[in-house]
């Protein structure tokens, strides 16, 4: 969705870029032969990228949205929890990555994430545009990119950013009611 993209590197823009990257990975996965080593490797890469994106959204997007729209936030976090459950099942080792069950579970995950991304793009991200200035969103986008660059290799294992990476707790406070932010 680029119809409400105002600035390339603001929070909305970087989330949209991540969504576009994930959609490209999903298309590649869907086009790959049913049984192949490449498809198995792609599934692992998609899962890693989804886990990273999920971690970033939970750190940056949803604390903000909780202050703006509790209902939308709870709905989105439910979708994240469902995706996390599917990811955990895929990573549990109970399914052979080359099995039909694994491919079906992966397809379910991709379908659910596509639906969730559309919901974010039409219902959540526009609210960020409404409640924050361009400068505030650019600052948050820069923090997102910095966090992405120093994120743990397995985001599922890390509950929070390492503060020694130069991202302070205050920078992660995305409360639109905070004095530094001018919600409008």
UniProtKB/TrEMBL annotation:
One Pfam family here: Hemerythrin
Signal peptide bounds: none
Start and end residues of each Hemerythrin-like domain: 12-128
Name of protein: Hemerythrin-like domain-containing protein
Organism of derivation: Capsaspora owczarzaki (strain ATCC 30864)
Taxonomy of the source species: Eukaryota, Filasterea, Capsaspora
